[in-house]
Every structure is written in C-alpha cells, then in structure tokens.
Write a structure and sequence with these properties.
Blueprint (H helix, E strand, L loop, with lengths): L6 H8 L2 E4 L7 H9 L3 E4 L3 H14 L5 E4 L2 H10 L8 E8 L17 H5 L8 H8 L2 H14 L15 E5 L5 E7 L4 E5 L5 H9 L31 H11 L3
Parallel strand pairs: 1-2, 2-3, 4-5
Antiparallel strand pairs: 4-6, 6-7
Length: 251
C-alpha cells in the first residue's frame, strides 16, 4: 500500500510492468519512474510524451526500459511495424479517427451543439475529458504528436526515418481499422479488431507474446463495410493546430 504524492512513482519503480492510465500531465512522474527504473511502461497517458517528449526520450534510453503504447491507434501501429524487418522502409503512418459525434457537420452547425451532444461518442466509451477532445478532433491532434514522439525521428532508437509530415489522419467511422503503416514498396499493413480497449492493454502486458484471450474479434461475415474519408479541417481546426504546435517544437 502506497500513499502520498510520490506513491504512484514508487509503484512504477517496483512493478515489472506499469500501465500508466493517469489522466493528464500528472502521469509524467509515473512514466519517468518506470522508464528510469529500466522497466516496461504500458503507456495510456499520452500527455507524458506530448508535454515532455525530450525528457521521456532520455528516460527511454535507460538500459532495460521498454515503452509499449496502449492508445488503440499507437498500439495498432506498434503491431503493424512488427511486420517490417528494415526500419528505414517505413514510409508513412496513418492514424484512424472515428470522426466523433459531429462527423459530417459543418463549422456553422457546430455552433449550436451541447456538451451532452459532444459526450455521445458513436463507437468508444471513454471518460469525459478524452470524449470531449475526440468530438473536436483535438484528441487526434494529440495522438499525431504522440505518434511522432513514439515512431518518428525524435525517438531515434528504433531507426525509423519518418517525420511529422509522414503521419496522416484518416476518418474511419466504424473504428475497426485502428491504424496503418505504409512501407516504401507501397504495401500497407493495418491492425483490425472491434473497438475494445482490453485488446491493446493485453497486448502491452503480454508483449512480445500475445494474450490467450480474444478481445474485439471480428465476425467477417457480418462486418459489412469499412469507410474512409479525409478530415474536415475547417470544421475541426484543432487537428491542424496540433500539427502546427508539433512543427514549432518545444513544450
């Protein structure tokens, strides 16, 4: 039993695997403690990388430290990249977005929406903070920055030679394709499953193995269709702002 402001970080130093699901910047001490102890970090706290990327990157270089992302999109990319033996052959990453409850609405139509409307996510059941961020595509913008920190040139250690402009966002309302990776020969590898956060959590816990219990299995005979479209940056300007912030750099 731990108590007090340092308790979470102390637990991270002792555990074999730490799943960091703390909301917001408060998760940074846990992230650093796990990595600096040379342990595996199953990261669901994207703010650690977004707000303190250079600090986290330094901690990732600790011998034995291992970071496996738990966000469904980044867990998907992590799985896709295992199909590639030559890191420099990665060409692009495609992060999928459900589009949230306001997909297809114009900027003018969004002026009259309510908080309850924004909290009614069509495919995922999440906490209110991330659900609101998803309704504006702000969350997807944060995930672009996170993907750049995890897999782009700042990370360095994995040898991938892609940057922010090689990370795309595509709207996919069914939330079955969780993300994709495209390689220099034009081949795209995708990770598909029904929306169920237990799968990426189990993946991070079992890595490099896989869990023995199936979560999010697909009934291919009844799946129906998979749709994709470009995000509307006029109606959802937060996504573009996130790219601008990432290009600017710093904190």
């Amino acid at each position: 039993v731990g108590a007090g402001p340092e308790a979470l970080a102390e637990c991270a130093q002792m555990a074999d695997v730490t799943v960091n699901g703390v909301v917001g910047f408060a998760g940074l001490p846990v992230t650093l403690a796990a990595l600096e102890a040379g342990k595996r970090l199953a990261l669901a706290n994207k703010e650690s990388l977004i707000a303190a990327g250079p600090v986290v990157q330094q901690a990732r270089r600790t011998p034995g430290a291992e970071l496996v992302p738990v966000d469904s999109e980044h867990a998907a990319v992590h799985q896709c990249l295992r199909a590639n033996d030559v890191p420099r052959r990665l060409a692009r990453i495609q992060l999928t977005a459900s589009g949230g409850p306001f997909r297809g609405r114009s900027r003018a139509e969004l002026e009259s929406v309510s908080i309850d409307d924004a909290l009614a996510h069509p495919t995922w059941t999440m906490g209110p903070k991330i659900t609101i961020d998803s309704s504006t595509l702000m969350n997807k913008g944060l995930e672009v920055i996170e993907a750049n920190e995890l897999f782009g040139r700042p990370a360095g250690a994995d040898g991938f030679d892609i940057g922010l402009d090689d990370i795309d966002v595509v709207v996919h309302p069914q939330s079955v394709v969780h993300s994709m990776a495209t390689f220099t020969d034009g081949s795209t590898i995708a990770q598909l499953s029904m929306p169920d956060m237990r799968l990426p959590i189990a993946y991070a816990l079992a890595y490099p193995d896989r869990g023995a219990v199936a979560y999010g299995g697909i009934d291919w005979a009844t799946l129906g269709r998979l749709d994709f479209e470009a995000p509307d940056l006029e109606a959802f300007p937060c996504l573009g702002l996130a790219y601008e912030a990432a290009r600017t750099g710093g904190t």
